[in-house]
Specification:
Layout: E1 2-8, H1 11-26, E2 30-35, H2 40-45, E3 51-52, H3 57-64, H4 69-90, E4 99-104, H5 109-116, E5 120-124, H6 147-175, H7 184-189, E6 194-195, H8 228-235, H9 253-267
Parallel strand pairs: 1-2, 1-4, 2-3, 4-5, 5-6
Length: about 270
């Protein structure tokens, strides 16, 4: 089987898809992998000659984390341009493809799949990408709200993304003799998304419109050794809890650090 994998986003979006791509190749499938240009070295280290496409999403993440309205407004035309960029860069690589796989901000994965009349599979790495009354939409930082409030954030999320990209997406679709879409977010995540997270830590929402498969998190094997300091720490006591942030930026790192240290003290664990 020939698989087109669109792994777009920050390292936390790209690295699990490298693990998936390795697994597909180990099972005898041929993988065509596309990643952001700044993730090319990561892909090469994993053994792939990837196709470089589009934006540096780590830079986008840093700019969005400032909370500046002016900065956020400058990102809108970049996101729209990314749709055309992905189409232009990858359409020539779709010949003979049997399956299209995407994650995060692979905006046109479903378009390719429909043109090819092949399946599209979207991987979400946290349940907050899937519509549910259990949690708010991704742009909302407040958790623990009542279910009706969570549903309201998803209604706004659908309106916002449709306002942002629906006209452009339907232009792209019309150029390929495809019918228009009404809801952009559902188009991005596909009809049957897969949730690649640990169900103990981040379970699939029970009220998602379609059942969500959850095979667990996807880890890329690392052949590098640990530093002497880290090895000594691990050997000096019980297994620690790990706290990490991936590519996220934080406007209040001191406050966040204090809250984490307090949580570690209350839990009575090493970290």
């Amino acid at each position: 089987m020939r698989v087109l994998v669109g792994a777009f986003g920050t390292r936390g979006d790209v690295q699990p898809m490298l693990a998936l791509s390795r697994s597909l190749e180990a099972r005898g499938h041929a993988v065509r992998l596309a990643v952001p240009p700044n993730s090319m070295a990561l892909a090469r280290d994993a053994g792939f000659e990837a196709i470089p496409v589009g934006l540096d999403y780590e830079d986008i993440s840093r700019r969005a984390a400032t909370g500046s309205i002016r900065e956020l407004l400058t990102l809108i035309p970049l996101l729209r341009e990314e749709v055309r960029t992905q189409i232009g860069a990858l359409e020539q690589h779709t010949a003979g493809v049997d399956l299209v796989v995407g994650s995060s901000v692979f905006a046109v994965g479903a378009v390719f799949a429909e043109v090819l009349r092949k399946p599209y599979v979207y991987f979400a790495f946290c349940p907050q990408l899937l519509a549910s009354s259990d949690h708010p939409s991704p742009a909302v930082p407040w958790h623990g709200m009542p279910h009706w409030a969570n549903r309201a954030t998803w209604a706004f999320n659908g309106w916002y993304w449709s306002r942002l990209l629906r006209t452009l997406m339907n232009e792209v679709r019309a150029e390929r003799k495809l019918g228009p879409i009404g809801d952009v977010w559902s188009s991005l995540t596909g009809a049957h998304p897969i949730l690649a997270s640990d169900p103990v830590l981040a379970a699939a929402p029970a009220d998602h419109p379609v059942p969500v498969a959850q095979p667990g998190a996807m880890f890329l094997a690392d052949s590098g050794g640990l530093s002497p300091g880290l090895s000594s720490f691990l050997e000096a006591g019980p297994a620690p809890a790990y706290v990490g942030f991936g590519s996220m930026s934080d406007p209040s790192p001191r406050k966040t650090t204090e809250r984490i240290l307090e949580a570690v003290r209350r839990a009575g664990v090493r970290a």
